[in-house]
Amino acid sequence: MNRLMIELNGLKLEHPVMNASGILGSEPEHVDILVNAGFSGIVTKTFTKNPRNGYPPPIIVELDNGGYLNAVGLANPGINGICPVVERARRHGKPVIVSIGGSSLSEFIEVSIKAEECRATAIELNMSCPHVKGHGLDLGSDPSMVYTLVKEVVSTINTPVFVKLGLCDKIIESAGKALEAGASGVVLINTIRAMAIDVYTGKPVLSNKYGGLSGPPIKPIAIRAVYEVYREYNAPIIGVGGISSWRDVAEFILAGARAVQVGSVFMKNRRIVYEILEGLEKWIEIHGVSSIMDLVGLAHRV
Ligand SMILES: Cc1cc2nc3c(=O)[nH]c(=O)nc-3n(C[C@H](O)[C@H](O)[C@H](O)COP(=O)(O)O)c2cc1C
Description:
By secondary structure, this protein is an alpha/beta fold. The chain has a single domain, classed as TIM Barrel (Alpha-Beta Barrel). Helices cover 33% and strands 18% of the residues. The protein is built from 9 helices and 14 strands.
């Protein structure tokens, strides 16, 4: 029996490690790379209705604290790019979660319908992008908006809907509203709005000035968010933020995540999934459980 197998409201994965949206996933060729890297489910780049070029460079910088700052600007090929990516993942026999962004209810609906037509296994509503105005965090930080949007999408399509939220004062409330509206689970968290300034030129490093902080520095914040949402709702949670080892994944699972997504570290280490799985196998052995699902939320019970 596969002890790493997990289940999220009907979405079955051979192990808990997916890629995070935006770490490849906008083109079919990216899917090949993600599948070879061992991810159990493929998460696409966020697709919007119309193609977006994103911001001019520099759009991503590595910081000296091990984190990254990015402002890609949701660059993606638009709605017509969805089917080729889904088809490629299906050809590999992998579940595929299509990430969807938009600046209006009708755009979210239209792109969700397209993702269903393309036979996405699930969709992930990106209500958390911290650096594109009107396309993310401003939606996800308004619990009533989250409720309305999720309710509409859930009642329009039959594909399971996950909701990705970002750091904001009302993250717990927004997660509750997403679940109340019928989401199959929540994805916590996106990058955190941040900034870096070049001390020689005196200018912000990113062309967009602001960006999203990712990588190890955000992990404790993501763990806190997962812990609190699990404590409140005991719901299916996908944890994301700063994972760079099996220990980080174990921490997310203990906090209440059933699955995780790995982003920034994959830019440096293409073997990370295999390393994580090896560590998790040993960790399960130490705990003497027959399924990793038995360890989900354990930190709330000890
Ligand atoms: C270059 C880059 C592009 C990203 N693009 C998206 C995106 O299109 N949609 C989305 O929901 N999150 C996007 N994210 C956020 C990641 O999915 C993830 O939530 C975040 O990076 C935290 O995980 P990490 O610390 O493992 O990178 C992006 C992150 C990076 C670094």
